[in-house]
Amino acid sequence: MWLDQADGFAEIFKGYIPYYLLVVFPIFIIMSPANPVAASHEFSVYRMQQYDLHTVPHGCRSASFNLEGRSLTSWSMSRHCVVARIQDITIDQFVEIRSKAGALLLVLPNNDTILTNEQKEHIQLLEMAMMQQEISIPVYFAEWTPDFDDIIKDLQHSFITDDKSGTALEAMFNTVSSNGYQIVVSAPNPQRLDSKPVTIHGKLVGRSATPQTIVIAAHYDSSSIIPDLSNGADSNASGAVALLELARIFSRLYTSASVRGGPSLVFVLMSTGHSLNYFATKKWLEEQLDSTDATLLQDVSFVMCLDSISSGPLTMHVSKPPKPGTPAQSIKSRLHVPIVHKKINLADELLAWHHERFSIRRMTAFTISSLQSHKDPSRNTILDKSSEGSLRNLVSNIKITARGLASHIYNLTDEENKEDVELYDNALNVDEAAIRHWYKYLSSQPRAPQIITATANGGVSAALERALSRYMEATVSAHALDRREPEYTLYTPTRAVLYVYSVKPAVFDLILTLAIIAYLSLVYFVIQFFPRFYEEYAKLVTGKVKVN
């Protein structure tokens, strides 16, 4: 009986081959464990900093790409986008990638507080190296996510180079079986940003008829390789917070005529700092000194710039050592800080410190900072974030600065009458709650020049203006760039959306095609020769020839 059923099965093979294929193959596809639709991921990414300074290009010059993702050890050509953790890539590898690869995608640390000091220093030096000159390929940064971590691990283990494979067969198998990723960013071409930096200033008038003027200045922008993540807690949220607290303290003292100091105090907040060569300071000085009504900066005693004062003890940076008996020497001795002397080098692309802009205009100026050198990489890093330790340093340094400045203004010393010193100390008490609030706020806001410019009518600039207005009449000045020969140029976009598609390598498609052809050929020949095979089998079992 089973032979009769086999006859019917053989007849099906003879007469219904096309219908069999149409039914069986879709069933095989549906039952297959592989998903025919490629997996995809979507991430928000940040484009590397791009700007021109004195027509010299810096940073990334491209925005879009559609390339195959590869790891640091497996990429080889311009059709590859190198994907790696920022702490894993070396400066030498970056230089090679910049000249030969198609794009670079760096994933930021999941938690930078667990990085070692060596890793932090490496990241800061890498940022400096990347910003030295222009980069033609697109460079993006992504915040850590579990999906990104899986992609990096997959790329590291999937593409094994020939020299790491034991045999040629193993190398071929690795090539065929590996999982690949197609990485796509569709972003508009970089466009120039209409930038108008601002300066916020206010004045407390002294009691003298023709008083000297003391200027306290700080820039409030920040700089790093990623504009949207340039929060700059130490550089220079700390300086801006210190200026606001000094403005609060001395506005209270200057309110009463009986305790008002002799010199006038001018407080100035600038929106562009060292990364753009203190452009706002330059324009503001031109407006104040070159105008017919130049009364704000008459008879300047000295200019004290506050820059990065929350990372440790204070240091005074000067272009000329202060002479004995001068106001600068007086404030130095009252602050009890060491001096670092560096001459101004106008041949450099960037000025070293904020006070040099004032010194060029023949003002006595110095910078108070916790940093020992203007080349310290912590001035331009995404790792510059707030902490409880930095907050304590900031509070302590503001106390030191307020006490030193007040002792100079009122010519007081610790040897004065004990009751007077106690009253003096009580008047100079800092508001730690306000310092904490402003320090946390500013260090949580991206303050790159591109971001500040984009929110000129609000955001950080408006918040600082309102804060300074509480203590004195605040004036905001917007500075226009020279359209023909701009001192600097900023570019957008600063962020984009990145798509990652899980794909197989091209050789896999070739091997799969050959396997399908071989499989279909085998099925075809099995179907064609099954009746003959059945006849031979029936003859062997029954000893008779099967008659159709």
Write a structural description:
The radius of gyration is 35 Å and the shape is elongated. The chain folds into two domains: 162 residues; 285 residues, Aminopeptidase, CATH 3.40.630. It is α/β, with parallel strands linked by helices. The protein is built from 16 helices and 20 strands.
Quick summary of this structure?
One of its GO terms (biological process) is regulation of signal transduction. The protein is an alpha/beta fold and 548 residues long. It has helices spanning 2-15, 17-31, 91-100, 117-130, 146-158, 168-177, 233-255, 279-289, 327-335, 355-360, 388-409, 418-427, 432-442, 449-454, 459-469, 506-542, and strands at 40-47, 50-53, 56-60, 65-70, 80-85, 103-107, 134-135, 139-142, 180-185, 191-193, 198-204, 213-219, 264-270, 300-306, 315-318, 339-341, 365-369, 474-478, 488-492, 495-503.
What order do the helices and strands come in, and which of them pair?
Layout: H1 2-15, H2 17-31, E1 40-47, E2 50-53, E3 56-60, E4 65-70, E5 80-85, H3 91-100, E6 103-107, H4 117-130, E7 134-135, E8 139-142, H5 146-158, H6 168-177, E9 180-185, E10 191-193, E11 198-204, E12 213-219, H7 233-255, E13 264-270, H8 279-289, E14 300-306, E15 315-318, H9 327-335, E16 339-341, H10 355-360, E17 365-369, H11 388-409, H12 418-427, H13 432-442, H14 449-454, H15 459-469, E18 474-478, E19 488-492, E20 495-503, H16 506-542
Parallel strand pairs: 3-7, 4-5, 5-6, 6-8, 12-13, 12-14, 14-17, 15-16
Antiparallel strand pairs: 1-8, 1-20, 2-3, 2-19, 4-9, 9-20, 10-19, 11-13, 11-18, 15-17
